């Protein structure tokens, strides 16, 4: 009967199927000798038959011992063939590859060993099967059997050597998809395998891995979160190598594609991933210049939250994000390339992102956003004008109500810039724009009295520093007069404005302006403020003292006898007395001993202050004012010598009689309001 395994003898077949390794090894050596003889005789047909038998009847058998024997024999066949293995490479490699996924650990071990021996002989001839071999290796490195892992490492090193030898013909286009498919796996061993391959290929001068970096960059960043420090270090080193190459030759890299990847990674919850992503963005901003501005909205989304990091563990991320932010600001401000850089900026998408971060963001983030908005208004105010309407509600309703003074102040800087950027060209202010803004601000104060009391002074002071203080005061007064506003809100607003006027150094010029009501412009401002200040009697008194209308002050103090003296009234009087001792009212104190205007101003002022003294209970303020008045000459003995034509009031065009009537009318309204409130409370 003909031998079905010919040219392999039945004895050899039996030994090759034996359960002991030694017998299988002896049989494999016999096959190696047979193949050597056939090779010498150039009998390739018989060699092909041996390979077919080994593949069909052994390696593909269900018997694990036959599989092991067949695997050893195929390796022996390849050793015997030497360089001629290339002629049979497919018939030898494919059966072995199938056994690498066998359920039997020993079969997988012998398969990896067999493949190593075949690859060692075939070398470059195995490269057409590289994808299959690489796939197999990627599984072997995660095998639960340590001996298989060890064997796979040896095979892996060999395959890398072969690829390096054949670098000029290596199919990198086929390799990258293999990496991309496996780079997202969670196994530390698989990650180590992938990183090692990328590192090896990146070190080969003939291979340009940077051009394929956008396809694998996401996966590399994900490897940074591996729990094993060794894997993290390997990945960090690889990323550093890539970045070094990119910095040497930025044109070799697809920076735009990678920037999109980095923006996503920079929003990772993993600090290490976040740090490296933002570090790369920082480098790309410096390398790309203005072109990177087309990614501004995405970069803002990535870095703005990082500016609020407070822990020491994230300080490096915050510092890096700050650096990116400053670099982007410089690109917008760059004089030489400013216009070119701005052409890359998608203002609509940038403003959409910035507006989002103005609400429900930490303080440092809000401040950075507000500085950006202000910067854009100063650099491209024409283009930014269309965004003003959308920004106003956010700035007014959210930012000015923020718990942080720094946010409030910065928001006012932006609001002031928006108002200024909307003014007409020239020296005159756009009154409509100013008025609209102040009306909105006043509405905000009206809706929330606590907000006015806590933030009003801060906001108005900052506005006066940044805008035209005279116009702000005049407009506020006009609005309060024209609008049907709550009387309590009006009086609170007046007290706030008055205290700012009397105490803020930035309003020095405005106070000086009110000192001289003989000037037509000053007189106009005084009248406007007076009609508004009438809501608060003590504020009205302060305004008149500031304007040196001492005769009118005396008349108002006399009227106080008919006004309801409340606790709030006495508190305000107390504050005013304290202010009289301040540097702001130095001219008032000197007026008490002045001989100008035939002593008229001094006498009216003295009588007014004595009247105030009589209104005060004997508190600290009483004694303070009393001590001051003790230093004043006694004008009471000459009451009839005061000439109304000698007073400051007589030297201006202000109709004080009408103002006095108006003041009494407003005070009557307030009195009626208090009476109505008491009646309601009774029920």
Account of the 3D structure:
The chain is mainly α and 683 residues long. Among the domains are: 1-170, Leucine-rich Repeat Variant (Alpha Horseshoe); 464-681, no CATH class. Helices cover 70% and strands 0% of the residues. It has 35 helices and no strands. It has helices spanning 10-16, 21-40, 44-59, 64-81, 89-99, 105-122, 130-140, 146-165, 172-182, 188-202, 213-223, 229-248, 255-265, 271-288, 296-303, 315-333, 338-342, 347-357, 363-379, 381-384, 388-399, 405-421, 431-447, 449-466, 469-482, 487-503, 508-515, 520-533, 537-546, 550-559, 567-580, 586-591, 600-615, 620-629, 656-682. α2 runs parallel beside α4 (64-81) and α4 (64-81) packs parallel to α6 (105-122). The longest helix has 27 residues, at 656-682.
What are the defining features of this structure?
683 residues, Leucine-rich Repeat Variant, 35 helices, 70% helix
Mean pLDDT: 90
Largest sheet: none
Low-confidence parts, pLDDT < 50 over ≥5 residues? Answer: 424-429
Query: Radius of gyration in whole Å, from Cα?
Result: 45 Å
Which percent bin holds the helix content?
over 70%
Number of E-state strands: 0
- Terminus-to-terminus distance: 124 Å
- Classification by helices and strands: mainly alpha
* Net shape: rod-shaped
Q: Give the DSSP E fraction (strand runs of 2 or more residues).
A: under 5%
Count of helical stretches: 35
GO cellular component, one term: PAS complex
Domain Vacuolar protein 14 C-terminal Fig4-binding: 450-632
Main location: membrane
Family: Belongs to the VAC14 family.
């Amino acid at each position: 009967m003909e031998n079905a395994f010919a040219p392999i003898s039945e004895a050899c077949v039996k030994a090759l199927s034996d359960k002991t390794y030694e017998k299988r090894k002896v049989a494999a050596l016999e096959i190696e000798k047979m193949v050597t003889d056939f090779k010498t005789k150039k009998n390739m047909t018989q060699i092909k038959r041996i390979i077919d038998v080994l593949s069909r009847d052994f390696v593909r058998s269900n018997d694990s011992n036959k599989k092991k024997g067949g695997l050893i024999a195929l390796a022996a066949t390849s050793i015997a063939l030497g360089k001629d293995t290339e002629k049979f490479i497919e018939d030898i490699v494919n059966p072995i590859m199938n056994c690498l996924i066998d359920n039997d650990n020993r079969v997988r071990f012998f398969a990896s060993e067999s493949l190593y021996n075949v690859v060692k002989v075939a070398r470059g001839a195995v490269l057409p099967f590289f994808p299959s071999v690489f796939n197999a290796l990627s599984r072997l490195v995660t095998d639960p059997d340590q001996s298989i892992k060890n064997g796979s490492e040896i095979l892996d090193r060999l395959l890398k050597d072969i690829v390096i030898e054949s670098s000029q013909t290596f199919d990198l286009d086929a390799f990258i998809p293999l990496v991309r498919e496996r780079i997202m796996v969670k196994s530390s061993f698989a990650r180590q395998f992938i990183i090692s391959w990328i590192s090896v290929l990146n070190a080969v001068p003939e291979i340009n891995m940077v051009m394929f970096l956008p396809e694998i960059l996401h996966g590399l960043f994900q490897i940074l979160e591996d729990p094993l420090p060794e894997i993290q270090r390997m990945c960090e080193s690889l990323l550093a190598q890539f970045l070094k190459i990119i910095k040497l030759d930025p044109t070799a890299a697809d920076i735009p594609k990678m920037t999109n990847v980095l923006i996503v990674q920079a929003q990772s919850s993993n600090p290490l991933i976040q740090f490296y992503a933002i570090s790369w963005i920082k480098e790309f901003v410096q390398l790309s210049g203005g072109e990177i501005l087309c990614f501004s909205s995405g970069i803002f989304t990535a870095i703005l939250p990082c500016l609020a990091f407070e822990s020491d563990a994230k300080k490096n991320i915050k510092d890096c994000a700050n650096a990116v932010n400053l670099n982007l600001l410089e690109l917008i401000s760059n004089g030489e390339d400013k216009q070119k850089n701005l052409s890359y900026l998608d203002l609509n998408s940038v403003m959409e992102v910035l507006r989002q971060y103005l609400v429900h963001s930490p303080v440092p983030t809000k401040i950075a956003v507000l500085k950006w908005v202000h910067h854009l208004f100063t650099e491209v105010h024409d283009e930014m004008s269309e965004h003003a309407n959308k920004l106003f509600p956010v700035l007014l309703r959210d930012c000015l109500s923020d718990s942080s003074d720094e946010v409030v102040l910065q928001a006012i800087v932006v609001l002031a810039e928006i108002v200024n950027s909307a003014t007409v060209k020239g020296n005159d202010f756009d009154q409509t724009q100013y008025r609209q803004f102040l009306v909105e601000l006043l509405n905000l104060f009206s809706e929330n009295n606590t907000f006015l009391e806590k933030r009003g002074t801060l906001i108005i002071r900052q506005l006066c520093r940044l805008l035209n203080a005279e116009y702000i005061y005049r407009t506020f007064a006009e609005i309060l007069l024209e609008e049907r506003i709550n009387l309590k809100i009006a009086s609170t607003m007046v007290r706030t404005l008055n205290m700012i006027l009397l105490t803020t150094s930035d309003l020095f010029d405005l106070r000086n302006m009110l000192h001289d009501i003989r000037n037509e412009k000053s007189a106009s401002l005084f009248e406007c403020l007076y009609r508004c200040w009438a809501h608060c009697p003590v504020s009205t008194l302060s305004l008149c003292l500031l304007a040196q209308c001492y005769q009118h002050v005396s008349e108002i103090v006399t009227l106080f006898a008919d006004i309801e003296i409340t606790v709030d009234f006495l508190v305000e009087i107390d504050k005013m007395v304290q202010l009289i001792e301040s540097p702001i009212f130095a001219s008032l104190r000197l007026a008490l001993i002045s001989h100008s205007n035939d002593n008229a101003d001094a006498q009216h002022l003295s009588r007014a202050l004595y009247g105030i003294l009589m209104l005060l209970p004997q508190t600290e303020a009483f004694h303070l004012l009393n001590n001051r008045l003790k230093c004043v000459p006694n004008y009471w003995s000459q009451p009839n010598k005061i000439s109304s034509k000698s007073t400051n009031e007589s030297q201006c065009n202000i109709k004080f009689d009408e103002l006095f009537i108006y003041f009494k009318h407003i005070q009557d309204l307030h009195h009626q309001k208090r009476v109505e409130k008491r009646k309601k409370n009774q029920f």
